[in-house]
Amino acid sequence: MNKKLLNPGVQNFIIENLNTDILSVLLKKSPFSGISARELAQQIEGRKKCQERLPLWYATPGIYFPKKENLEQASSEITAIYKSRLVGGVSMIDLTGGFGVDSFYFSRSVGNVTYCEEDVELAAIASYNYKILGACNINVRATDGISFLKGMSIETDWAYLDPSRRVAGSRVFKFADCRPVVPENLDLLFSKAGRILIKAAPLLDISMGIKQLQGVQEVHVVAVKNEVKELVWVLRRDYQGEVTIKTVQFGNSVTRTFDFRPEEERQAVPEIGHPLEYLYEPNPALLKAGAFKLIATRLTLRKLHEHTHLYTSGKRKEFPGRIFRILDSVPYKKGSMGRFTNTKANITIRNFPESVRLIREKFKIKEGGKVYLFFIRDVSEQLTVLHCEKL
After folding, report:
1. Which of 280, 309, 291, 308 is nearest to 372 (CA)?
2. What contacts 329, CB < 8 A, 6 or more positions away?
3. Structural contact between residues 89 and 110, judged by C-beta atoms closer than 8 angstroms
4. DSSP 8-state code for residue 226
5. Its pTM surpasses 0.70
6. Of the candidates 17, 109, 197, 262, which lies 20 to 30 Å from 204 by C-alpha distance?
7. Rounded to 5 degrees, what are φ and ψ at 153?
8. pLDDT digit string (tens) for 277-309?
9. Helices 8-16/37-53 angle, 10° precision
10. 251 pLDDT exceeds 80?
11. How far is Cα 228 from Cα 221, in angstroms, rounded to an integer?
């Protein structure tokens, strides 16, 4: 890391140019001796990227930002804080430290945290930033985490991994494809830590992951603003009980949760029928978790079709997702669709043979507005359009 970037004048330049086009910064000669235009651009771009995802880093003077790809895999503050509430105890080791966001928040829940990162420059950046942020209980090690773990002579309470999902220039998400490969290192991990926490990509199939690992106690599906960001796996040495799947949806002002066991979902037998007055659309965390039948039986809702993951009721109920009032239900036919042609509407398809793009082109429906149209297959196997208003 180039410590000249930390000089007050340079830091002021970075802050003053946060809204400047990065390309223009790269094309101009750097106004500072010993600092390249590329280095300035990296700091400007890094700070700007952190404005929403890492507001503490963005707002703290003197923070040093790494390359763009290092920031892209870093946890957001909201997900890092969530993970920190899952751990505790005296000691913890972060085997894939990266930019260091997770280790920073783990240090607020655990007595001592060991951060490992084989990228020497990235480890130096994290170490410097921890001092700026006042984190005094993090021991930074610029080394490969698995190698360091093998050499440990004492046991730690928790081991944490966020395996790299960039391998040989490609993006991957399966445990077997990420690095380090978690399944083949489980015996080593459990020999050094009683509990393991793993961050995985949202694309990973949960049932497949449970089969590939051992000691899985919990799987947390974490969504922020209607997008699943992480699958967080809690493993415990010698645990052989049932897995609990926990979903959490962080919204602008409300946090929704729904927890269940896969066996509950398998045994659930929901009522299936035609639409009533209210329509319920599960949030992304719930959909990823696969509680398609259980959500209906738990909340006494009617499912619109076995494979149409929308729900309905005659009386409004609290629900972990969006709620709508159904204004009308019409068959998907050219004559019935006339009222929506050349209008503006928000379109959602569920168990429907045509894409949103094709529907918009066919009926010249522009995106947006206050009208919500759900294109579904109903209990009678008929293609139907639900005309709704959002509540």
Report:
1. 280
2. 274, 275, 384, 385, 386, 387
3. yes
4. S
5. yes
6. 109
7. -100, -15
8. 999 999 999 999 999 999 999 999 999 999 999
9. 60
10. yes
11. 7
